[in-house]
Amino acid sequence: MRVEGIAPTADRTLGFMVPARGARGQVVRLDATLNAIVAAHPYPEPLIRLLAEALTLTALVGATMRLHDGQVTVQASAKGGPVELLACDWRTGELRGHIKFDDQIPVTDGMSLPELFGKGYLAITVDQAASDERWQGIVPLEGHSLAAALEGWFGQSEQLPTLMRIGVAGSAQTGWLAGGLIVQHLARAEIGGERLDAGDQHPDWEHVAALAGTTSAEELTDADLTAEALLWRLFHEEQVRVVPGPRPVKGCRCSAAHIRDVLMRFPETERIDMRDDKGLISVDCQFCSRVFAIAA
Questions:
Q1: Sign of CA dihedral 224, 185, 213, 38
Q2: Is a pLDDT exceeding 60 seen at residue 7?
Q3: What angle do CA 259, 92, 242 make, to 5 degrees?
């Protein structure tokens, strides 16, 4: 099923609600944006898949924000595995991310989070600029996927029943495509009635989770399947409202002017030590691999 005028694999986010079941969610597709981000680094393919999953997670959470002027940051710091650092963030549709890894340690598909990271934690931070609100969650890097780790955190720490599905497909030769689905049960205060954590799992949520849980990675990365068509497959017996969200774009915010402004905050004595024999300070951006030579 195609929706006229919409490219199935275009970078996009689509919010939706199932009002009768008290559920909301997002569908995210990353296409050109994902390929532009991973092209900046010579990552092995298993790490491209890991970064693609993290970028999709970041976009899913970012697109659910009520106010679109905030920022979502997902960062993992670890020791003992090939991956030392993973960082992604989303701001008003601008998405970026990178991985720092030890290229002397081999990585293969199917490695668990402890095998990839060793011992570490995943931190997700949400900053709402308009309301000056900020919250952070810390998730142990356990299991086989970042999505499963974050899904459990929403349910246990935030009492917000959540289901997440992510798919990544492609190769360095053909290009990459990632898709994600998040479904959450609305807080009782938002729709009236008792709190979810006051009793057993709500039957409406069990129904929605059972339907959404059938989503496969193949569907999320099907180049001919639009987000609308996917939602129709899942919830065709329900009334579903959809709201287009911000379009994801590669959004590295580095610039010569910004870097110079940061450098000028350092004392002159420290800037002297930073300069090369041409009087320039070289600063590289980890997100886009650009090197800026600044006269500061």
A1: positive
A2: no
A3: 165
